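[INFO] parsing input record for Probable cytosol aminopeptidase
[DEBUG] input buffer:
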Amino acid sequence: MNFSLNSKTLVNTKADCLVVALPEKGDWPASTTEADSALGGLISKLQKAGDVSAKIAATSLIPLNDQPWSRLLVIGTGKDEDRPPSSFRKALVAMTGSLKDGPSKTVLIALSDTPVTGDDSARSELAKLSLIGRTLEDQLYTFNDFKSEKPPARKLSKILIAASDTGKAHKEAFNLGLATGRGMNFTRDLGNTPPNICHPVWLAEQASKMASDHDCIKTDILDEKQMQKLGMNSLLAVGRGSSQPSRLIIMEYRGGNAKDKPHVLVGKGITFDTGGISLKPGAGMDEMKYDMGGSAAVFGAMQVLAETRPKINVVAVIASAENMPDGDAARPGDIVTTMSGQTVEILNTDAEGRLVLCDALTYVKKFDPAAVIDLATLTGACIVALGHEATGLLANNDELANELLAAGDRANDKAWRLPLWDEYQNLLDSNFADMANIGGRSAGTITAACFLSRFTKEYRWAHLDIAGTAWHSGKAKGSSGRPVPLLVDYLMSHAGK
Ligand code: BES
Ligand code: MN
Ligand code: ZN
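[DEBUG] output buffer:
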């Protein structure tokens, strides 16, 4: 797909289809008015006659006889009073849906002057260009690697975005949106790849590939022997039941000053979670291939950095293993000594995410991090608590938590904070070791984070539980690419100018 910004007047820009916004009430955006007068008042006529809907995200495709456009796509943008960025995104999703398999080859999208409510950063043309770029990329995603018959190629091949200016700031904002969309799509490719292919060594190869494609990314991969030397017995216990060896994957992007402390991302990379000896029920178990969704989001964010080169230092660490039952698998009752020296009684082998993460979280101390953010499809309880809308956020630092919440709001990729009070910690008491790896039936997301918090005392840390947000179940089954937008927004807000 060819994307570009266009600041010529609409009538001077030829395209097979022009896209404009139509609000239910109130003033029209300037580009809708411009198109209306170029078309001799057609849009007003159609609206009066009820032939186009202005309801939020309604789409009406109207054939035109006139040049410079063969079609007009009218997108409803709803009521004036309530037009947050999330509604604008809804309209963009509907627009892409209507364009992607349609007859138009070239499209001119005149939506960057659509009014959006919110603070200055949400209302600005730059924010809208960024959201348009991201939404186009992410809504045009397909995954057909494993279909023997590929769908026919799309006609749509060139997208022009009307903008008031095509200077550096506008280009950068739009390109960041496109890069974020591509980052999400990379995350989705990884999450959708079947678990007989996507195993820890394959994930490590993706990191090596990224390092060879982008000279700003360096990678280092630790095998089981090297992890054993470091005392990562908890991580290694998870992979023991699998014939696929475990890996610790480290990627570094150093775009900032040498003395700037790095932001560290830690991803859960369980390439398949059967539960181990504490075997999961069979129904829907295929979806546990996305138990590497945290690491996939880390990969997506690193790709965005590699493509946009912000002035920031970021280190990514992925703890990857496959959780399988086997004669050599860890048992309920086993006690392991973590890299930190603390001992853990494994009461349930299905609570394996925290077992791999705790050693990775100990390992990252060596980077002297500005902050550590871990991402994990950690608990089914998070889906019960927050559904599929919000990522669960728990943190040992209010400032960091608020920054991530704000980044999620700005990026339309929301998170919601849950408490991490000391009162919950005793749920992890064990009769035989320093702690158990499960906390019983109540507050499952919180006790999982409490477990992790025992390994993150020496730095600012936040945990994102993405069990509900990284994946779509049902008809649209597949990886969502979340929370790449949140991560990118957070990292960019820390990048130097
Ligand atoms: N990977 C799962 C969590 C999960 C469940 C993610 C459903 C996405 C959808 C995790 O390893 C797990 O099995 N957690 C257990 C923890 C329990 C044993 C304390 C869970 O949530 O049931
Ligand atoms: Mn599990
Ligand atoms: Zn898991």
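[INFO] The chain has two domains: 2-161, 185-494.
[INFO] shutting down worker
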